[in-house]
Known about the structure:
2 domains; 46% strand
Amino acid sequence: MGFEFAPFSVSRVFLRTLANAAFLSPRGWGALAFTALAVSGCQTTGLSMPNLPALPSFAGGANAGASGGKAYPLPVYLPGDRFSYDNGRTVRVVSVDGDWVTWAQGNAYQWTANRDFTMPPKGWNTSTRTSQLTKLTITPGAMWPLRKGNSEDFIYANLVHWKDGSQADRTYSQRRGCWVEGSQTITVPAGVFNTVKTSCYRYRAVNNYFYGKRTWYYAPRIGQVVLTVDENTTRVSTRVALVSYRKTRVHLNRSEAAFANGVLQTALQTKLSGKTLVQSRGRVMVSVTPLRTYRTTKGLFCRDYRRLTSKGERTRSGTGTACHVANGTWKRL
């Protein structure tokens, strides 16, 4: 069974209506119990009493923010892209079909999701269960390109099936009210990123019971969310940060490769550990950060470093080691 895009139209966005409801009033918020937990070495705080975002009124499921601000397009993925997080998960892109991307975590879990990270997965598959999206009241990507003030409001439903027949199929539905909060520079294990902060309030579709808030910090430079924060009412709150990533190889011609190597040489020769050198030429941008300097048992001076290379929409990041050799250059190991 496929899923439908069902246009969802309201005279006023539901969050504005719910803002006047008792369970979303300051008194109602104060009655909710929130918890906190340190997850995967990251400090996690509970959901404090929020201020409901001032979402503009709109007639459809999405609203464009004020014109003139910087806007960020949907991310671009290719098979082989890989991202690792501080909760121990490493995910990779298996295939891409238009705006739908199939991801895998190990061999036991696979799912298909839209390039728009605010959307629910179209389907997922584990060793015991499968899920399929059966209803979505908005067209994915409606809030993109991301710009401060953009917002969207939609309902979705998914059908969960137990492979062994131990339980009857179940349909789950949820309502989300999302908005782009603005820009924020954050630091995660993978580096320092300028991000677009985008959040969604999540509700049970049948009775508008409030689940919590999910916030994504999307880094346009690498086309990926680098931090996800879930603040929940009934479960522990979590914070998951990007540790490392590898996007499909950036193809540089001979001149571009020479330029990239020159940036590496300059950074290793002149920058203190922890300081970053960023240089651009044409469509190519190279960022190098020396991480550690030491002397080997053979007397060589060596440096560990992190390097990011971008060309157009493709970005690759990684770490390496280079040692200073007799001709005065740094030779990568």
